[in-house]
Give the backbone structure.
Amino acid sequence: MAITERPVLSAAIGTEHVRERAAIKVENPATGERIGSVPDHGPSEVEAIVARARAAQPIWEQMGFQGRAKVLLRAQKWLIENADRVIDSIVSETGKAHEDAQVPEIAYTAAALGFWAKAAPKYVGDQKVRTRSMLVKGRKLITRYRPLGVVGVIGPWNYPLLNSFGDCIPALAAGNATVLKPSEITPLTSLLMAEMMSECGMPMDAFQVVTGAGETGAALVEAADGIMFTGSTATGKKVAARAAESLTPVSLELGGKDPMIVLADADVERAANGAVFFAMHNGGQACISVERVYVEEAIYEPFVEKVTEKVRALRQGPPAGAGSIEVGAVIWPPQLDKIESHVKDAVGRGAEIIVGGKVVAASGRFFEPTVLVGVDHTAKIMREETFGPTLPIMKVRDADEAVRLANDSPYGLAASVWTRDTKRGQAIARRIEAGAVCVNDAMMNYLALEMPMGGHKGSGLGHRHGAGGIRKFTKPQAVLVQRFSLKRDLYWYPFSPRTTRLLANALHFLYGRGRRK
């Protein structure tokens, strides 16, 4: 695919406000070709951008759910009509397969635009409350969800649409102005989203994209009224610590080391296909990809044989359109070294490489799709997030050992259990310490926007999707209205022995009649 280098681009709607700084070069990791550049915005520029967003936020909020939904639904239509252009942008800056851009990125974002446009009133519209408290009976009770104001979204490099702009959608649907800081490795697709929202009727400055590296992200944490961060656990802790200084609400989706448990009664063919797809999808660069596999010994050999055959058949290289490859490039330069070091560490601890295991000599950044067996559980590839096209497989005695090893991790993002006995699979799933567990599937829960998606342990705070996935971008407010205006309620001043006795009798009648056992 021929890529024309893009010029330095402004990173915000309302380009006249942005002073251009030193440019950040953007490269295609599959070819090493420079494809564009973006400004590196400093703290003062971030502060100014957030100030403009804060000024624009009331206009966006006052459009109401219906007005905001119209903009989001127009954006949904724009995204589908311009899907090829957006896919080309994603592929050029990530080096991923065409299909890895089409299915998770385009399909998810289009669905999310429609979902939040329609679900926002249900989740963050005024909620009437019924009370059991007799002291409050007769009053009108409402829970109201007020927008935070300006939400800063800091996106990762592995999914420049899904996990960057995708997190802006519920924030916008709730009535917030939103400032998106994409990864400096993959910023170009976010700029397309700024163009999209402007064309679809977004008020000036209510959605902006600011580009830059760590300093830019830190400045956004300082300036915004709420933060959504996706990235490593180490960086997430720094974001949380910085946000804590100003008590800024923060939601974090961090690292994962997602286990796959294959029981002896599993459909070996489906389990092997699932292991290969969910481990190699997006070049293994997904927070909820399969990163380690535990297989009961009764089917270990046939499972390994099938996985090996399927991984050997995978095509890898620079993407050249639909259907051209399965496994793309390693997006972030330091990640290539990390993948290689994890594989070497595993081999040093006794693991055997069945397929792959090496950096590919090419102009781009590639690591061979790799299968390892005989892996020691102390190896980095079983303990730390590898984030690459690797599949370490470990034999276990039974399901109890598999669950114990699956939970022996600082992470708890997602997991999967594979068995023909789905009732038993669900029982085992409930024992796994992870925010999401699939039975006979993996990762697909992410597409169920009604369900919460978030991590346990070191995998994050808060969650995406469902009611909590949009309410985190709001401030709940309790509203109580006294509709029947008495001159004085019984328990108001002045106190007297008579009213005190009446209240005591009422409390006894309401709460003191339970039978003693």
Notes: The chain has two domains: 43-254+466-475, 258-452.
